[in-house]
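User: quick one, fold this
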Amino acid sequence: MEQVFTTVSSKGQLVIPAAIREALGIEAGTRVAIRQEGTRLILEPETLAAKLRLIKEMRGCTAGLPSGTDMLLEDRRLERARELAEEGW
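Assistant:
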C-alpha cells in the first residue's frame, strides 16, 4: 500500500484513512494496540481477523518440543526423587 499522511489533532488523535480501515477490518470501537519501535509507532488492530491470523501464524510453533504437562511431571518426579534421597530412601 502506498504511503498516506494524516495529522495529529490537538487532543493527540489521528484519523486512519478509510481505505486502510476497510482493508484491515477496523470499525468504530475496534481496539488498536500501539507500540513504539525506535522512532516508529506500530498500530495493530484487535479484530477477529487479526486474532485468527496470529493463531494461524503460531500454529505448530511448539512442534517437537515436550508438552508443558510432561515438563511439569518430570520436574515433580525429580523433586520427589530428591525428597526421597534426603529422607534416606
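User: anything notable?
Assistant: The first strand starts at residue 32 and ends at 37.
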